[in-house]
Amino acid sequence: MPLPDPFPLYGPAYKRDPYPLYERMRAAGPIHRVLFPSGVTAWLVTGHAAAQRTLADPRLGKNHALGNDRWREHASIMPEPQHSELQVHLLHQDPPKHTAMRRYVTDAFAPRRVEELRPRFQEMADALVDAMPADTDTVDLVRCFAARFPFQVLAEVIGLPPHLAARFRREWGKVVAPVGPQDPGRPAYEALLRGLQGYIAEVVAHHRAEPGDDLLSRLVAARDEGELTGEELDSMVFQLLVAGQEPVTNQITTALVALTRRPEALERLRAEPELMPNAVEELLRLDSAFELTTWRFLAEDADLHGTRVPAGDSVIVSLCAANRDPERFPDPDTLDLDRAQGPHLAFGHGIHFCPGAALARIELQVALATLTARLPGLRLAVPDEDLAWIPAVLGRGVGELPVAFDRPVCPRSRG
């Protein structure tokens, strides 16, 4: 039987608002073939219940070695040797290797530990607002805040020293976006990869020479003691530096866009800051920055939600589509700050549930509370339709967020 034509998951209209497409797909069934701009086809799961089952399905593995030739032809975009050296992190591992590697990061991101750092995160957020230019009518909140705060927090949590943190280039995060071998941008893409690898080598060398009581030092020690390979160490540092901060940057932007579209909700948060923890959960549900999961594969042909899926084809879950499933969340397109939250899937589910979820929640609470309190009358400075949504395959967010507010940023009370 011929395979159905895939739904295209790309283009400005889709990235600006994928939810009408997801609604049609959910109504037609839980799983569909989709096409990405790199030419990769995949099976996309959309409903909440189906998504939970898929994310916990032991038949589905994450290791790229499970991918078949059709997938590998288009998906292995990162050239060798970088692919082998940077792609063996937690997101691409299965038990027991995944279990062993995950243990290294769970302590650093434990809820109690990151909660103790909340006052330090608040100092960082306030300092960024203090530094915002006061001589202009508009401020780009990505450049001034959203692209900086999560990285500062991450550096504090994992033990990246200030002199190395200052040299990190945000554009290195673009190496996760597919750029095919024939793409005119391929040379620039490979230059970014080499630059990032050189930076990772410096990070490793520093923590080997000057070990401390921090996550990066523990990872380097695990490599030196033979518990991790060199490729696994570099991959985990890569994952921390890129996946550890870029999704939070994007989530700050999706949350702010949602709030500026609903001024009454934004003003209510300013008036009732005690709502912030629940508001963060609702904003995560409404428009998750991690739109799609990474690849999963079946080792053998098998039935998945009533559809025969060939071995080695990629299976992906739409976290955004699952989080707006009306069977799980009544009136799902509404931002309801009083919603009795159930288990949204913004951080995934199962053994690959995001280990940094507790940290991300605190970052979002601090960031949004600070911005709503200190930027009165916060509003978009450009028409909503002019916002440029990032063309990332898996993520959602805007690359710039020009905003205005009612009066110049006031310094904090030094009381």
Automatic annotation (TrEMBL):
Family, similarity comment: Belongs to the cytochrome P450 family.
Tagged with keyword Metal-binding: yes
Superkingdom in the source lineage: Bacteria
Protein name from the UniProt record: Cytochrome P450
The keyword Cytoplasm belongs to this UniProt entry's keyword annotation: no
Alphabetized InterPro entries for the sequence: Cyt_P450, Cyt_P450_B, Cyt_P450_CS, Cyt_P450_sf
PROSITE patterns xrefs: CYTOCHROME_P450
Molecular function as annotated in GO: heme binding; iron ion binding; monooxygenase activity; oxidoreductase activity, acting on paired donors, with incorporation or reduction of molecular oxygen
SUPFAM superfamilies: Cytochrome P450
Organism: Streptomyces netropsis
